[in-house]
ArsR family transcriptional regulator
Amino acid sequence: MKKRVLFVCSGNSARSLMAEAMLRDMSGREIEVKSAGFAPSSPHPEALKALKKRAISTVNLCSKSIASLGSDSFDYVISLCERAREECCDLFAEQNFIAWDLPDPAKSEKAIAFEETATELTERIHMFLTILQRDSERPNLYDEPQDFFKIMADPLRLRMTLLLAQHGELCVCDLVAATGMSQPKVSRHLAQLREYGLLSDRKDARWVYYRLNPGLPDWMRNVIQLTLNAKTPLIKTA
């Protein structure tokens, strides 16, 4: 059966509507996608323009209310604003919930606000699909909170995660130098973090660079950032 994904934000006029069209396009229609809002308005012209610029179909794309979903259930519900995150937690408590808080491009004074939103969504959706395909036999994309804390409980994995949160992107040699651990050990633990979905990577010539997965649920990102802000001695040599 196809996975079912719902994107939610307040007006369902820009962020969630763009995400719906983009995931449908990027997944080759292998995923059933919907979007809705708590106070739906109408598709923002600039949102449609950003989609068309990427050759993404906007046919039948319209703003919809949460109420119109009826009793529909979803494999994943992804909120794209603070209000949606707060209200979705209760409304979709029985379903896998991910929060991506993106700034509302309609409220920005930047001329390229909708382009930036489209770029951010492209990156997050790409990682969502990558992890979804890699972990197709797992019931939940990121498992439960206890599994997150379990993988973060290892001192080396925690330290490397904090280093990546601090610096943004590092290669294996950077992490070896910062931790004082052997390259095989560092690579093994990076592989575990990547398999879990905590990290993403990119290749540049013969180097592989790692960073935090931009598609992480916000609560995970917040836990990592709070730990980093605590000035933990784990990264004092970074």
Observations:
- The chain has two domains: 3-134, 145-235.
- The beta strands are 3-9, 31-37, 76-79, 96-99, 170-171, 199-204, 207-212.
